[in-house]
Amino acid sequence: MRALIQRVTWGKVNISGKLFNEIKEGFVILLGVWQKDSEKEAEIIADKTVNLRVMSDKTGKMNLSILDTKGEILVISQFTLYADLKTGRRPSFLKSAKPEIAEKLYNHYVDKLKNSGVSKVVTGQFGAYMQVELNNDGPVTIMIDSDDFKLFDT
After folding, report:
1. Structural domains of the chain ordered from first start
2. Is the pTM of the predicted complex or chain greater than 0.90?
3. Which residues are catalytic?
4. 84-124 residue pLDDT tens
5. Where is this motif: Gly-cisPro motif, important for rejection of L-amino acids (predicted)?
């Protein structure tokens, strides 16, 4: 599982030209699910997300978590985070989980965020064509990859 986390002053997602969801200060997260992911990876990545200390304290130092600042989170499904570019010019997405598995794990990740005490957690629409807008603050962009935690055999 990969979570590309962007610290933002605001973020929103539009579907079919209409506002679907929006947040104020917090994180816009693009979440990709790998074909071998399980609920365990979703839980670990969610815990890392809410405890990640990249929010600014009073002195401007990245020292606080989203929980500390009562920030908000917008999560967008993003299968293209598992693009394989080793051969050719067109990316392969075979490493991404099948939609029915990916959606279940995406929802599990979102539920874990919601149950962790984050003040607001909203999403895009899984599988929809979306337009995501955000104002990256810093800019701060962090990738959390479950592969870094060696939770499964490859």
Report:
1. 2-149 (3.50.80.10)
2. yes
3. 80
4. 999 989 999 999 999 999 999 999 999 999 999 999 999 99
5. 138-139
